Amino acid sequence: MKPLDERICALFKHHLQQTLTYWSVFFSFGLCIAFLGPTILDLRCQTQSTLQEITWVFFSQQFFLLVGSSVAGIFKKTLLSSLLALFFCTLIISLVFAFIPFCHHIMLLSIAMGLAGTAMGVIDTIANLQLVKLYQKDSAVFLQALHFFIGLGALVSPLVADPFLADDSCVLGLNGTSNSSWDLEHLRNTLAGKGVSIHNTSQYHLFTEGIVVTKVSYAFWIMAVINVSVQSLMKAQFQRSKFGVLDFKSLIKVPKMLLEPSIYLHTHV
Predict the structure, then answer these.
(1) Which CATH number fits domain 7-162+216-268: 1.20.1250.20, 1.10.10.10, 3.30.499.10, 3.30.40.10?
(2) For the chain, what is the mean pLDDT?
(3) For residue 240, what pLDDT is reported?
(4) DSSP state at residue 34
(5) Which distant-in-sequence residues (6+ apart) come within 8 Å of 264 by Cβ?
(6) Which has more pLDDT, 165 or 192?
(7) Which residues contact 227 (CB under 8 A, 6 or more apart)?
(8) 106 near 44, Cβ under 8 Å?
(9) Is Signal set as a keyword in this record (predicted)?
(10) Is the pTM of this model over 0.85?
(11) What are 66-82's pLDDT values in tens digits?
């Protein structure tokens, strides 16, 4: 009988590409789920909403993440349906993040983040479940690594956003004035839980009308590109599996494959 470490190493080598794919998907998940916090003030400027209104975007993302986690079980029946769910969820997140810079109304932004949250919830459930199926009783160490990657993504996420965040107010008042950079820095620290308690944020007068000067769009487009790179790993996983290359013709059959995978495999494989 092989020692535990040798057996785990052998399993890891055997399932290397699948494991790296799930880890990369979770790294992308961590990047995306933590991206809203650093960019929230710039998104407030983009939508020209109040601080109280923009916080509903957090609720939308987290509520639909719960919904996505709850409904993800319908994709667990086969490896094919699980991989397709992961592929299309990362695609949805890429499209949503590419579209967010064009959301100039708080309701539209909330819907977009809700859609992304649903996709994140599906990714959360499916990636965990597939790793457990892959390694079974030896899955603990690989699940720990999986959650390390979501933490790593959340750590890197603010670094991606930081160069594009406004130092001064990203909405210039109608008379050309703006909030001071000290006020915005103090407000960011307050929202992060440093210093002044959160109920004192009403002391800041933030413009909701005027000229929007934020550059946060570039940060979201970079995130969309990162997610596209994760999709390339997913496509490589399809190519190495028995399902063959994922092409555009197969996309037509996706709804049936996702909802009735056992019937599809029985009649088409």
Answers:
(1) 1.20.1250.20
(2) 77
(3) 66
(4) T
(5) 253, 256, 257
(6) 165
(7) 28, 32, 90, 91, 93, 94, 97
(8) no
(9) no
(10) no
(11) 999 999 888 877 778 88
